[in-house]
Design brief:
disordered N terminus; DIOX_N; iron; alpha+beta; IPNS-like_FE2OG_OXY; 9 helices; L-ascorbic acid binding; about 25% helix; Jelly Rolls
Length: about 350
């Protein structure tokens, strides 16, 4: 039998990894092979689920007494300051909704390529199906297919990109996004309280918050030691909410004390991380953290990510309350829309995009 062809099937000018995987290539195409310095060291021990801070949302909202609420807010403060990542349990989003959203995403990725290509991600944009953040022919590609949609406010939606298959996809994503929006709004209140600020300070500052959803599908890879599922980056959002698919391989890794640490998901919990916007607003007290995704030899992985950020019209900068002689202003004031544009028109490179906002000393 003739060997399977190695030429990648293109989406735009980019190989579609699911199709590539079907052809069972004996070698990984060069565009996916990372330089030695970027390759993942495989199978570092995952942090036990309890190592990454766990915040019990029900204790914040319905604590039995002030001490319990205060204790949980302190946990949240430590999570934001020392980790930039935490897992939220008892988040009040119906588990059946998490499940149906995951099923919708999975069904979408399993559609024939021609169907998915009806919703192409145009170069330099981050909505549609394909790969985002690719700007040159020699840039290394992630071992991942993405499908992303702008959700709120209405004017950022591109109705042509909302698929008609699977049935009920749009409806499910809308309901899910409303619930996640509530969660983000509430978490930001408690993050404000943890900083000693008025609870509505972020809501007032953000205007009509921008919300987007991105589904990532990582097929198995015969050489997971050579590729990355998603390049290292911090998020440009204020908060990011990650739902990890059930029964998937561990793929998320965060940079902690200069080491890449795998995050083991807790069943039914959501992983929350601080984005660049909160780092700027808190003058660096709460930091966004670099993270990446790795692949697995036999298992695929699905994740659903929501990005929650201020309105593009807003002017942002460090808050007065979080600056003093010992903590001088580290970031300039800027328009959030300009920062977002800067973020989506540059390739993912650690925390490099945040240099846009830094005051160069």
């Amino acid at each position: 039998m003739a060997p399977a062809p190695l030429s990648p099937i293109k989406v735009g000018h980019i190989a579609d990894v699911q199709e590539l995987r079907k052809s069972k290539p004996t070698t990984i195409p060069e565009r996916f092979v990372r330089d030695k310095t970027e390759r993942p060291t495989l199978a570092p021990a995952p942090l036990s689920p309890n190592a990454i801070p766990i915040v019990d949302f029900s204790k914040l909202t319905k604590g039995n007494n002030d001490d319990e609420v205060h204790g949980e807010i302190l946990k949240l403060a430590t999570a934001c300051e020392k980790w930039g990542f935490f897992q939220v349990i008892n988040h009040e989003i119906e588990l059946s909704l998490l499940e149906s959203t995951e099923n919708m995403a999975e069904q979408f990725f399993m559609l024939p390529l021609e169907e998915k290509q009806k919703y192409p991600m145009a170069p330099g944009t981050v909505q549609g199906y394909g790969q985002a953040f690719v700007f040159s022919e020699d840039q290394k590609l992630d071992w991942c297919n993405m499908f992303a949609l702008g959700v709120e406010p209405q004017h950022i939606r591109n109705p042509k990109l909302w698929p008609t298959k699977p049935a009920k996809f749009s409806e499910t994503i809308d309901v899910y996004s409303r619930e996640v929006r509530k969660l983000c709004n509430n978490l930001l209140k408690y993050i404000a309280i943890s900083l000693g600020l008025r609870q509505n300070v972020f809501a007032e500052m953000f205007g009509v918050a921008v919300q987007a959803i991105r589904m990532n599908y990582y097929p198995p890879c015969s050489r997971p030691d050579l590729v990355l599922g998603l390049s290292p980056h911090s998020d440009g959002s204020a908060l990011t909410v990650l739902q990890q698919g059930k029964g998937n391989s561990i793929g998320l890794q965060i940079l902690k004390d200069n080491s890449w640490v795998p995050v083991k998901p807790i069943p039914n919990a959501l992983v929350i991380n601080i984005g660049d916007t909160i780092e700027v607003l808190t003058n660096g007290k709460y930091k966004s953290v670099e993270h990446r995704a790795v692949t697995h030899k036999e298992k695929d992985r699905l994740s659903i990510v929501t990005f929650y950020a201020p309105s593009y019209e807003m002017e942002l900068g460090p808050m007065q309350e979080l600056m003093d002689e010992n903590n001088p202003c580290k970031y300039r004031r800027y328009n959030h829309g300009e920062y977002s544009k800067h973020y989506v028109t540059n390739k993912l490179q650690g925390k490099k995009t945040l240099e846009f906002a830094k005051i160069q000393t």
